[in-house]
C-alpha cells in the first residue's frame, strides 16, 4: 500500500556484504549515516575555512554551534569536562544533522531506529564507566552511595541507584528514537490523508486543505523536535560525564 | 510544546527504570535459577529507581554529581 | 484448556489492574492541577506529596504488571 506509514523506516540493502556468516551489508541506513557525517563535516569545514575575524553568516552558525555545546558542557561538568568536548560536539552534530536530514522527503531517518540510538547511548555510558573507573578506581563506586542515608537502608539504596544507573542508556535512547519515530509516522499519516482525500473529487480537494495545513504545521514542529532532542541528548551526556568526573557527592 | 516534551521525558525515565529492573531480574533468574524471586525483587527495585529517575529529572533532588559543577559537596539529597 | 493459553489469558486479565492505576493517577494529577490553579503559590510546596501519591498509586499498578510478567516468564 502506498500510504503505509511504516514503509519509510524499511532497511534495504544497497551493497550486500557478508563476512563469516554475519551481515555487513551497506544499507540505506549506513548510506545516510555517511551522508550525515559528510554533511556535518563539510559544513563545519567549509564555513570556518575562511577564518574571518568578523564571521559571515554561515561561519557564525558554526561558531554558535561550537559555543552552544561548549557552554552546555562547561555548565554541566565544569572546566574539567572540556576534555570531552570533541566527543560531545560530535554526538550533538551527528544527532542534529541526522534528525534534520530525515526531514527531507524520501530521506531515511537514521535516528528513528532504536539500535542506532541505543548504540549512541551505550557509547556514552561506556565512556562514563571506563573513564570513571580509570580516573577514580574503585572510588567511582561512591556514585552509588548517597550521603546521609541511615546505615540500614544503604544496601537497598545502592541497589536502587544501580538499577537507576542502568536505566539511563535505555531512557536516553528510547526518548530520541520514540520522538523521531512518532513524529515521522504522524507526518506520514497526515500526508496520506491529503492524497486519499484529494482522490475523492472536488469536495475531497477542498477537504484536503485541512490535513495539508496540519502537515505543514507538523513539519515546522518536527524541526523544533529535531533540534530539541539533539539538545536533550547532549545535555544528558554532559550530566552523565559529570558523574564520571566527580563521582563523590 | 515544551510541556509535551517534558511529559514524554518523565514517563520515559519511569518506564526505563521499571523495564531495566524487570529485565535484570529476569536475567538473574535465568542465570541463577532463583525463579521467580529475582523478577519480583528487581521489578520493585526498578520501580524505586523509576521514581528516583522522575524525581531527579523533575529537579526535586540533586543530580548524581550534585549541582555545583566543581564537584563540591552537593547538599540537598533527601 | 491448555496451560499456556490459560497463562496468557491470565496475564491479559492481570493487566486490567493497571487500568485502575491509570484512573487513580488521573485523579491525583487532575486534583493536583485543580488545586494548583486555585492557589498557584502553594503548588510548588506540594510537589513532594504529589510524587508520593504518584508512587503509592503506581506501586499497585506495578503489582499487577508483576503478576502478568510472572505468569508470562516463569
Automatic annotation (TrEMBL), chain A:
Subcellular location: Cell membrane; Membrane
Gene Ontology MF annotations: hydrolase activity; proton-transporting ATP synthase activity, rotational mechanism
The keyword Transmembrane is assigned to this record: yes
Protein name per its UniProtKB record: ATP synthase subunit a
Recorded family membership: Belongs to the ATPase A chain family.
Function, as annotated: Key component of the proton channel; it plays a direct role in the translocation of protons across the membrane.
Provenance organism: Nitratireductor pacificus pht-3B
Membrane topology type: Multi-pass membrane protein
Transmembrane residue ranges: 31-54, 84-108, 114-134, 143-167, 187-214, 221-242
Primary location group: membrane
Keywords for the protein's UniProt record, in alphabetical order: ATP synthesis, Cell membrane, CF(0), Hydrogen ion transport, Hydrolase, Ion transport, Membrane, Transmembrane, Transmembrane helix, Transport
GO cellular component: plasma membrane; proton-transporting ATP synthase complex
InterPro entries linked to this entry: ATP_synth_F0_asu, ATP_synth_F0_asu_AS, ATP_synth_F0_asu_bact/mt, F0_ATP_A_sf
Keyword match Transcription: no
A family per Pfam: ATP-synt_A
Chain coiled-coil ranges: none
Automatic annotation (TrEMBL), chain B:
InterPro entries: Atp1_alphaprobac (IPR016989), ATPase_put (IPR032820)
Keywords: Membrane, Transmembrane, Transmembrane helix
Transmembrane segments: 7-28, 34-55
Protein name, UniProt field: ATP synthase protein I
Species: Nitratireductor pacificus pht-3B
UniProtKB/TrEMBL annotation, chain C:
A GO cellular component annotation in the UniProt record: proton-transporting two-sector ATPase complex, proton-transporting domain
Parts of the chain that traverse the membrane: 9-30, 50-73
Gene Ontology molecular function terms on file: hydrolase activity; lipid binding; proton-transporting ATP synthase activity, rotational mechanism
Its membrane topology: Multi-pass membrane protein
Subcellular location: Cell membrane; Membrane
V-ATPase proteolipid subunit C-like domain boundaries: 9-71
Keywords: ATP synthesis, Cell membrane, CF(0), Hydrogen ion transport, Hydrolase, Ion transport, Lipid-binding, Membrane, Transmembrane, Transmembrane helix, Transport
Function recorded in the entry: F(1)F(0) ATP synthase produces ATP from ADP in the presence of a proton or sodium gradient. F-type ATPases consist of two structural domains, F(1) containing the extramembraneous catalytic core and F(0) containing the membrane proton channel, linked together by a central stalk and a peripheral stalk. During catalysis, ATP synthesis in the catalytic domain of F(1) is coupled via a rotary mechanism of the central stalk subunits to proton translocation.
Positions of the record's site feature: Reversibly protonated during proton transport: 58
Name recorded for this polypeptide: ATP synthase subunit c
Entry similarity comment: Belongs to the ATPase C chain family.
Amino acid at each position: 500500500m502506498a500510504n503505509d506509514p511504516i514503509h519509510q523506516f524499511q532497511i534495504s540493502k544497497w551493497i550486500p556484504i557478508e563476512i563469516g556468516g554475519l551481515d555487513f551489508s551497506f544499507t540505506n541506513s549506513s548510506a545516510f549515516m555517511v551522508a550525515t557525517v559528510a554533511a556535518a563535516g563539510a559544513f563545519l569545514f567549509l564555513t570556518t575555512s575562511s577564518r574571518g575575524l568578523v564571521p559571515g553568516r554561515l561561519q557564525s552558525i558554526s561558531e554558535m554551534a561550537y559555543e552552544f555545546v561548549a557552554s552546555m558542557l562547561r555548565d554541566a561538568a565544569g572546566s574539567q569536562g572540556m576534555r570531552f568536548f570533541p566527543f560531545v560536539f560530535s554526538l550533538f552534530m551527528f544527532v542534529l544533522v541526522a534528525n534534520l536530514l530525515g526531514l527531507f522527503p524520501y530521506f531515511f531517518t537514521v535516528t528513528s531506529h532504536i539500535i542506532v540510538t541505543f548504540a549512541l547511548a551505550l557509547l556514552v555510558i561506556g565512556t562514563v564507566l571506563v573513564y570513571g573507573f580509570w580516573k577514580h578506581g574503585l572510588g567511582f563506586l561512591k556514585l552509588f552511595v548517597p550521603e546521609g542515608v541511615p546505615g540500614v537502608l544503604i544496601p537497598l539504596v545502592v541497589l536502587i541507584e544501580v538499577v537507576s544507573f542502568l536505566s539511563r542508556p535505555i531512557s536516553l535512547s528510547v526518548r530520541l528514537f520514540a520522538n523521531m519515530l512518532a513524529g515521522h509516522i504522524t507526518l506520514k499519516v497526515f500526508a496520506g490523508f491529503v492524497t486519499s482525500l484529494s482522490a475523492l473529487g472536488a469536495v475531497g480537494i477542498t477537504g484536503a486543505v485541512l490535513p495539508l495545513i496540519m502537515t505543514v504545521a507538523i513539519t515546522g514542529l518536527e524541526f523544533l523536535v529535531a533540534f530539541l532532542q539533539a539538545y536533550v541528548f547532549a545535555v544528558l551526556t554532559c550530566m552523565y560525564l559529570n558523574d564520571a568526573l566527580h563521582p563523590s557527592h | 510544546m515544551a510541556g509535551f516534551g517534558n511529559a514524554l521525558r518523565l514517563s520515559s525515565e519511569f518506564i526505563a527504570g521499571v523495564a531495566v529492573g524487570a529485565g535484570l531480574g529476569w536475567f538473574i533468574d535465568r542465570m541463577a535459577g532463583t525463579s521467580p524471586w529475582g523478577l519480583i525483587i528487581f521489578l520493585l527495585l526498578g520501580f524505586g529507581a523509576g521514581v528516583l529517575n522522575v524525581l531527579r529529572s523533575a529537579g526535586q533532588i540533586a543530580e548524581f554529581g550534585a549541582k555545583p559543577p566543581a564537584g563540591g559537596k552537593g547538599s540537598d539529597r533527601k | 484448556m491448555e496451560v499456556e493459553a490459560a497463562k496468557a489469558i491470565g496475564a491479559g486479565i492481570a493487566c486490567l489492574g493497571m487500568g485502575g492505576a491509570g484512573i487513580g493517577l488521573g485523579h491525583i494529577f487532575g486534583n493536583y492541577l485543580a488545586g494548583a490553579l486555585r492557589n498557584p503559590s502553594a503548588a510548588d510546596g506540594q510537589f513532594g506529596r504529589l510524587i508520593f501519591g504518584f508512587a503509592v498509586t503506581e506501586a499497585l499498578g506495578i503489582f499487577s504488571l508483576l503478576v502478568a510478567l510472572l505468569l508470562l516468564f516463569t
